């Protein structure tokens, strides 16, 4: 290859990469109103080799690098179709090739490497056991090599992951200081953070830490929703939520709306959970309200003055006075009519189960709300009846079922969990299939603009995924490969629906 040919090849690569990055940077500029003028050289479709033109493009890119924050990259890439393998790789390479890298550059590299791994990994995101070598192999196209060994401090960061995985709330996660300690370790490494082995270790940590973070957040959301339901069943309608940044008399209905609007993509760098302090405060407020003794309503003065008994003849002749002297309802809701009560607590009835599946957020209007476990029980009951009633099949096949006006297919191993299984693994499969069914129906109703609560269905789905991950890990430990593969396949289908639902919720 001649010098001229090499130069032309280099110029072509420069313009190809620059135009790819420009598609991202110009969208960042527009979305977040950064205010940088457009780069006319990149707007023009002709690749030019003049040094002054190339230098103008480079200066424009450097200006954008100085203005764009990690959270802005995160928000844009997670909410558009710009998050491709090629785009992520180009961004990572750009920041790694910078001679002088700032702390903001490190945050960008942190995020981009995790996104690249999650996007390109052949492993499903439901895999619990991800080794450093697995991460290194996926990152090889952009890091250039697979380390033969990893630093000694990698063991200490694994202990931080163990702490995070044991946290069942954002408050516990925050108090563990695991994220803060990991960040301090990263900063203490200085330029050694950019060694390939260190980048692999932190990418693995960030990926698994983010998963633990979201798990804790969803457990908090579930606890808050449950507390709201229980308080409303007591007749409570508002609470002092100033500690969570809300009002002194915040209605529980608005608190529920706030929870529904909670967005999963991170809008700021990891900071040990401080971005989620309002969520932690809300859980405390609601829990404290639940711990207060339930107030018993006092009868009205008319009721106290009313005789203990009244002749039947008088009651028949004078119905109006009898109605006026009845105790007036106070904070305690009026009991439900008996037919509604039976429908809410009788999962054996197909009609009741189908209604719960069709509208996961349908709330009883008087004595509170159906719990999420009830949705699953009702759905499992309906699925079991339909699967048992299906004609026997020979060989591998699927079982069609219909719930909430939607038709779904149940895999062979999933159907057997309802018909033959009576162990923990079968129960987990039943709950996962039921969660998938609830979410599927919720998605269909959302698309048709019918009443539903997709957020509840997503919470149910996330909890089922967490349980299935544990079952996959146990099956692998027991060398039960067939079970591990089947469980992973069911989990993957559920995760696909969750991803679809979260897009609709944005």
Helix share of residues?
55-70%
Could you give the order of strands across the largest sheet?
1-2
Give the low-confidence spans: 263-273, 300-371
User: Judging from the principal axes of the Cα atoms, what is the shape?
Assistant: globular
Share in β-strands: under 5%
Distance between the termini: 51 Å
Rg (C-alpha, Å): 29 Å
Topology:
Elements: H1 3-31, H2 40-43, H3 51-67, H4 70-78, H5 85-96, H6 103-120, H7 132-143, H8 154-165, H9 170-176, H10 178-188, H11 196-233, E1 238-239, E2 250-251, H12 252-260, H13 277-291, H14 301-305, H15 312-317, H16 319-324, H17 338-345, H18 350-358, H19 372-389, E3 398-403, E4 406-411, H20 412-419, H21 424-447, H22 454-477, H23 481-505
Helix pairs in contact: 4-6, 5-6, 6-11, 7-11, 8-10, 8-11, 11-12, 11-13, 11-22, 18-19, 19-21, 20-21, 21-22, 21-23, 22-23
Q: Which descriptors would you attach to this protein?
A:
single chain, 506 residues, mainly alpha, two-stranded antiparallel ribbon, 3% strand, globular
